[in-house]
Amino acid sequence: MFLLTKTPFGRMSNAVRDNPERAAFIGYNVRHVRWIAFTLSATFAGAAGSLHAINYEHIGFESVSIVQSGQVLFMAFIGGVGHFVGPVIGAIGLTYLDSVLLDITEAWLLYLGVTFSVIVAFAPGGLAGLIVMHGPIARTNKSLLLTLIKPYSSAIGSTLIAVIGLIGIIEMLYFKSLISKGEGEVIIFWTEFNANGIASWLMFSVLILSGIYLCKITYPKAREGWDNAISVVKTEISS
Questions:
Q1: Distance from C-alpha of 42 to C-alpha of 223, rounded to nearest angstrom
Q2: Which residues, 6 or more positions from 30, have their beta carbon under 8 angstroms from its beta carbon?
Q3: Exposure of 56 by Cβ count < 10 A (0-12 exposed, 13-18 middle, 19+ buried)?
Q4: Distance CA 86, CA 98 (A)
Q5: pLDDT of 180
Q6: pTM, whole model, 2 decimals?
Q7: Alpha helices by DSSP H, 102-197
Q8: Are residues 181 and 231 in contact, defined by beta-carbon separation less than 8 angstroms?
Q9: Are residues 116 and 142 in the same domain?
Q10: Which domain covers residue 102, as residue numbers?
Q11: Domains held by the chain: number
Q12: Are 87 and 71 in contact (CB under 8 A)?
């Protein structure tokens, strides 16, 4: 599949995807290119289905359900549809999280939906796009990547604080509304919290507010570090 993307047909497929009007203007049959691409994708999908059948030794209606199709789209968009490794990253990540988090929380699908929404809203290129965008910096001046470690780490840390607080609130709400039958003890992050007590709610709320406050401080610094690195790269390339 990767070698196919390097052929003239693969590059033409990208052109048809990005700008079909221009591809048609220079003489390519857009419908024919899409037909071949669809046929090849069906071939690879059939091969994947065969491997799936060999691996699980069972094929039921759930294997071709809308849930399965939606999960594949989630993998592609979260990983990044504009890069070859994007769907690979998305498939590995979501499969791992699905197998791990499914035994930890019943609200896994909610987290998946929130993750998908955040990726589409703030990183349309997916996780692979966030990685590839640093390619020019790595090729031009690798030392600039080291300068981004501190602001990026601060921004990621601030985000994690808010995410931990949000997960705590979601887990307690989910526990109170769907699971709890008078009990108040819920396990979050391998720690027992009292969903009936105000202390747990207050602690996670403080984490959310603290994370948001820190994000307002660290995100501009991360953006500033990125802008400085890109400006240096542009200067070195032009010179």
A1: 41
A2: 16, 20, 23, 24
A3: exposed
A4: 18
A5: 57
A6: 0.79
A7: 108-122, 126-132, 135-140, 143-174
A8: no
A9: no
A10: 65-123
A11: 3
A12: no
